[in-house]
Amino acid sequence: MLRHIPSLNWLRVFEAAARTESFTGASQILNMSPSAVSQQIKALEGHLATALFYRGARNVTLTEAGQSFLPVVRQALLSVETTAASLFGQPKEVALELQAVLIFATSWLAPRLPFFERENPGIQLHITCDYRETDVLKGGAELRIVFGGVPHSWGESDRLFSETIYPVAVPEIAERIETVEDLLAFRMIEVASHRSGWINFLETAGGPDIADATFCFVDSSEISLAMAASGYGVALARAPATDGKVRESGLVRCLPDKQMQNTEAYHLVYRNAVSLSPAARRFRSWLLTAAENQ
């Protein structure tokens, strides 16, 4: 069993030799001697305990193992180069790391990003999603969009908006739901991580005893809406954060006169406004306006 990944330099030499089908050609690209290239290739083959090239008098060709390995190596090298250029190739003032709740990022934020780019050209935005409630003071993304309460220890925050909760399904199911009791004929897809869900909605709507309901538990609104879109059951939309995904999935509202207002909200969180980078300040200003006008 291999205990260590191959040397990055070995991989660069391997890729160059495979591209040129020549150790001499690789040496010219990498500014190395042909013998040094040959030694690097031998070291890689020894590490993998596998021959990667057939040696000819004037050129080399990949073995079957080498052909299988090459795409992986190229992707790995490209990933390193792309990430390095993204993180370090731009001035600090135009790069911004943002962490956001998945459904917010995919359904609400993503459709609006072209508008942000037009108003703020040159800002390079990097977005990650995380279910965990992470203390912003421990580093990582400069801005974070979270849902629910915001501990004072996290720094400062801006309230964006709360959510309106109502059931959605594919049209064939929605048209069969005329009363709250009709929901019991279908599977209710519940996001287990949410504090407000079907129990709260049914209580607000004056619905039936949940003991008679059939539930399916998932861990994100993304999954619940995707399952509803397949016809597997009825999910809860959480407007406006889920509006884009509901439209995209072809889901329609059930019981138009029944809905519930959630007291919890989305928040933009950061250490403090004074220390924000120029890019973060511009994004914050844009986001607050977009949230207010959505």
Please write the CATH class name of the largest domain: Alpha Beta
Query: Radius of gyration, rounded?
Result: 27 Å
Largest sheet: 7 strands, mixed
Oligomer state equals single chain
Category by helix and strand content = alpha/beta
Query: Helicity, in percent?
Result: 40-55%
Percent range for β-strand residues: 15-25%
Shape: elongated
Poorly predicted spans: 133-137
Order of helices and strands: HHHEEHEHHEEEHEHEHEHEEH
Concise account of the structure shown:
The chain is an alpha/beta fold.
Write a structural description.
Helix 8 links the parallel strand 7 (187-191) and strand 8. It contains eleven helices and eleven strands. Helix 1 (8-20) crosses helix 4 and helix 5 packs across helix 10. It has helices spanning 8-20, 23-30, 34-48, 64-88, 102-109, 113-119, 171-174, 198-205, 221-229, 243-249, 278-293; strands spanning 53-55, 60-62, 95-100, 124-129, 143-147, 156-169, 187-191, 214-218, 235-239, 252-253, 260-270. Residues 133-137 have low confidence and may be disordered.
